[in-house]
Each structure stands twice: as C-alpha cells, then as structure tokens.
Amino acid sequence: MTTIAFIGLGNMGAPMALNLVKAGCRVQVFDLVKQSVEQLASQGAVAANSIEEALSGANAVVSMLPAGEHVRAVYLGDHQSNKGLIDAVAPNTLLIDSSTIDPDSARLVASHAQRKGLEFVDAPVSGGVAGAAAGTLTFIVGGSDKAFDKAEQVLKHMGKNIFHAGKAGDGQMGKICNNLMLGILMSGTCEALNLGIENGLDPNVLSQIMLQSS
Fold first, then answer.
1. Tens digit of pLDDT for each residue in 143-177?
2. Would you name the residues annotated as active-site residues?
C-alpha cells in the first residue's frame, strides 16, 4: 500500500486527500487547523499531530498550501530551528507540491531536494473545489521525466488530465499562463455584460445569449 503524507487540508487539499483515501492509499494528514485533520480522519485518513508525524513511513508527500512563503517554510524550514520537510523525509520519498505559487519558490525547493537526492515536482491544479471533490482536476507538472512518471501514479487518483509542462517551476509558469488567459476572458465577459446593461439589455437574457453563441 502506498503511504502518502498530505500537508494542507483547505478547500482544495481536503477533497484531494479524501480521493487518495478512496483510492486505497494510506493517507497521513496534517493541517494547522485541527478540525480539518479530525474531519479527514473520520473518513479514513490517519490523523497526524505534526508534519514529522505525517511523514513517518511515507513513500510520497503531497502539499497544498496557500502561498510560496508557506511552501518554503514547510520544505526548507522556517529559520526558527524548525527543520524543513526535505531534511526530515526518508530517502527516495517523492515530493509533490500542488500549491499555486511563484515559479522561483518551486525552483528553489526543487534545487534543495535535488541536493538531497530527492525527486520533487511542482504540480499546481486547475478545476476548482468541484474538480477536487470529483477527482477531475487538471495537474500542470514541472520536474524531471523520472519525477513526473512517479508523480503521475499519485496524481491520477486526484485528477483526470496530467500534463508535463517541463522542468521544475514550469508547472507554476503554465498555471500562471492559464490564469492570465482566464482573467482576460472574465474581464471581457464583465465588460460585455456591463455594456449590455448600460444599453437596456436584461443581463440574464444576455448571459443566455452568450452561453449559446460564444
């Protein structure tokens, strides 16, 4: 049985971890919010009181954290004598970070992992909370071919589309490009709706026109 340490049980992380449980993995979960850990434990995950406890016996780590500063602190240490995850995991542990962060932070973590002989991928997601719950997320992965092949065996339990964008950090860059396109489309949609409203159109009718036409 694959044992996975899952760090970060927010709106995205919790359903992702649950899908790993449903896939038959032993999932050892940790989050600063104890209630989130307890909720996952009630659904079959193994509750951990610390990151170190979650890492015990794990073959792989999946993290889903808010920002680059949190990823750096978890993987590299927080400069307050707290050891980073990279220095705490067993040899040959696969490291997967699915947080949406800056590419430079992903590359920094990857370089530290490489020096320790560990495989690391940045694998941000697209698909939202609904996709996380349904197990239909899209993963945009950055890392070596070897790391990608290993990560794919874990990610397939949480997503439908898994792309290898390139080297470490390229997953985050791919996500940025995707978000840029999405932002432009959303802005254009808002401007179009506002133009219609200002000229007397019903926004509900205009929305339906757009859905069927554009």
1. 999 999 999 999 999 999 999 999 999 999 999 99
2. 175
